[in-house]
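The step that takes the researchers longest sounds almost clerical: writing a folded protein down as plain text. The outcome of that step, for a single protein, is printed below.
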Amino acid sequence: MKSKRSFAAAFMAAILFLSCASLMFISGTKPEPQQKEIERGIGYVDRSVRYYKKSLEENNSITCRFYDDMPDVPYVEIRDFYSSFYNGKMSLLDPVKNGLFSFSEENSRSGATIDPEKDVLFSENLSLFCNNPKFSVRNSSGITVIATSPFLKLLTAESDFNGKETTIDFSRWGIDIRSDGEKLFMPLATLSDMFAVPEGLVPCPDGQIVIYNGEKIYYGDSAAFTDTDFARDSDPSILPILTEERSRDLADFTYRELCFNVDNFYGFPLNDNAFSDKIKSDGLDAALDAFYPEIKKAILSQNSSDYIAGLDILFSDCLCDCGHTQFPGGDVLTSTVGKGLYFSAISAKKDQLRPKELPNVSKSSENRAARKKCSEQRNSFFSSPVYNTYGDTAVFTFSSFYVNYDAWQDYYNGRGAFPDEADVVSSLYKYLKIADEDPAVKNFILDMTSNGGGDLEAVNAIFTMLSDGTVRCSDSITGQVLSYRYLMDRNFDRNFDETDSKPLFSDLHFAVLTSRGSFSAANALTAYCKDNGIMVIGEKTGGGACGISFKSTADGLGYMMSSYLVLADRNTDNGIEPDVVLPVNNTDGEKDYSEFYNIERLSREMNSYYSGANSQ
């Protein structure tokens, strides 16, 4: 075992949690010990550390190794991490040859070889190796597929498997991989960052965030820091005391881990952004040095308020991509336990640190302004907020992609009625039936001009209702492209049968109506529709190319960022050009979207489009 740079300070002191005496005061009882020493070896101690997901009453533990030169940074054997938090089996290919550890994940078509002496990982397909089996079912190709909705199933999943091989040199970030000759150990935070990635390249951000707070571990689904049932957010012992200082070693380690995560797993969706380009070419550390040295100083600060303010500005401002990358206010700092402290402690710090020029913040503001303007003008033209008709054309309006999973599960399990207008899927189905039964209507428009995105499973469901087409996404790490086709219970009779083999509303012509405000999931649906011959009309969309990855810093603060999963077979962050562009006029300096809600004109444009070479 080699000796490297010492990180000799306590995570517990740096993360600044409430004392045991505070816990006793709050609960009225002495808290149970969260760690138990198992074994001491040369240069390390092994401890059994308790971990929690939904409840602080859970009784689970994992063995963590604490090295003498890093006494408060937990290391975990990679197979123990995978079995404890992913309910999966990872095998070590015996024997260990020349000090190299080769791992194979059960049922996956990929593995990884790790050299603990050089701190290097090599994988033929890193995305498949990092698949999370807990949420998913694998097909024969090893691809992870998720369909939470009971009315949606995967029909086919194909991949060229021509993605590039991946090598990660952890020494670049000062991350030390260690071995005792028989087992391989990595920092808990590094393993969490590696495996909390988009699932098997499907449009879902599910992974497992695993957080160590100095005495115990919390873990949960990747969006757990927005989940009110997450055990961490109900535990007073994780609340940072913002007026105290972090240890120097914790600040350094947390910063390096942050750089590792952004450099490897950020999606780089931003266009015309020199800061993002610099990260892509030289890494986050070099980019901060070149563009925002004061923000780097804040993130490295031992002062917790400076540190948190720096994180917020980095993700919410410097890397602003209209919503996918941010430091969410719903984190532990604004949870029930920490409510109010976050804003009062760092708002002044943010005002001092925020750069004057943030190009993508203005882009985000323009997208929001477009959605607001479209919503206002639509209301002056349309009599109904959801469904309107004129002659042969119907318009269905929805402002987000939302699936009411509980209502659908109740319906499919016989516990409830059909969820009529409970979400976008049931609402669309209702109005598709109305349009289909109306002999005058032959055109059906999905109005997404004020749609800022939402659940990508709703995108898959809507696209499958309209088309037999293929959903394609790509992995910017490996370059791999995957194609999916879904089978849907299109008539919602709770049976998958021959009546579901084709779209039910094939007599209707479809179009999507878009604006600069159509973002994220709305951008993805537009891309799928255009690729499959469904008309796009209106204004170029506002982008939102990448899926979202939910992450946590090494000291337990959650953030979200655009992932390396691109929600198409190309980067669509510049937006999707419509087949027919509608005029956007400027009146007194404000955009005028009047023509977008002129159904008579929409009808003419659709009839012309489908009567020509693009007719279905």
In short: DSSP finds 17 helices and 28 strands in the chain.
